[in-house]
Structure to design on (241 residues):
């Protein structure tokens, strides 16, 4: 049995519940700025979350609901421009303090650091979003706490592909079996499992009830989870909770 050496955190839905009141709002503001009458309500956004990556999500929405728009010669440029505007809005929302950490996250990270566990991030969200979320929601110096931050377009294939977790493992120089991934979604779980990483799931607003087969444990959040619990979940000794 390997010894746990590192925690690899997903971001959206795991560190912070960002999707409904953060990313979704930012997308809608970007569409309005561009004079587009597109509006992603909470239900539609829940469907679109099947696709990870903001640019990929916009493309998926247009190709499915506005196919003629997707045929425009400037479509790719428009997607990039919309996404850049969306990211600027998201950063502003986070800086305004409107998206707090999920329960237990700050405490668990502090316990992990005190115990000498190595920390990393593996996310499909854009690097700018990780930076602002860690700085504004965790601590101004929190970026330094994570040895490796794998985010957005650094890999060709986003979750559920394993690429982002493999990218992080390579830079951590750790075997998958010495790490524990913390995820919130079926796409994230598929990605970490495909990279061979034992995974703990905390369900988020949009992912409650998804099929988390293969997770070591599925919990509502980290509010009652101590580092000792994580060790016991990792080595399989935690009684069922
Ligand atoms: C969640 C995602 C991201 C965000 C939007 O990432 O799929 O695409 O929804 O962020 P994770 P961007 O759960 O892996 O943290 O618009 O920057 O992609
Ligand atoms: Mg997530």
């Amino acid at each position: 049995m390997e010894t746990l050496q590192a925690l690899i955190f997903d971001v959206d839905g795991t560190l912070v519940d960002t999707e409904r009141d953060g990313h979704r709002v930012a997308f809608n503001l970007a569409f309005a700025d561009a004079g587009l009458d597109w509006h992603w309500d909470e239900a539609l956004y829940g469907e679109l979350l099947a696709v990870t990556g903001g640019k990929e999500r916009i493309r998926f929405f247009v190709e499915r609901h506005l196919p003629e728009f997707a045929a425009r010669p400037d479509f790719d440029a428009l997607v990039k421009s919309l996404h850049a505007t969306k990211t600027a809005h998201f950063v502003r929302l986070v800086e305004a303090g409107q998206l707090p950490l999920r329960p237990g996250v700050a405490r668990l990270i502090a316990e992990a650091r005190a115990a000498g566990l190595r920390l990393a991030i593996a996310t499909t969200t854009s690097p700018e979003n990780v930076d602002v979320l860690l700085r504004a929601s965790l601590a101004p110096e929190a970026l330094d706490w994570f040895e490796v931050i794998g985010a957005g377009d650094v890999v060709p294939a986003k979750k559920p592909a394993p690429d982002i977790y493999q990218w992080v493992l390579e830079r951590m120089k750790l075997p998958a079996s010495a790490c524990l991934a913390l995820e919130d979604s079926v796409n994230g779980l598929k990605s970490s499992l495909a990279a061979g990483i034992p995974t703990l799931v905390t369900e988020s607003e949009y992912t409650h009830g998804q099929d988390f087969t293969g997770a070591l444990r599925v919990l509502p959040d980290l509010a009652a989870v101590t580092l000792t619990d994580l060790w016991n979940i990792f080595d399989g000794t935690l009684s069922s909770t």
Observations:
- The pocket of magnesium ion (ligand 2) is lined by residues 10, 12-14, 184-185, 188 (CB under 6 Å).
- The domain at 19-95 is CATH 1.10.150.240 (DNA polymerase; domain 1).
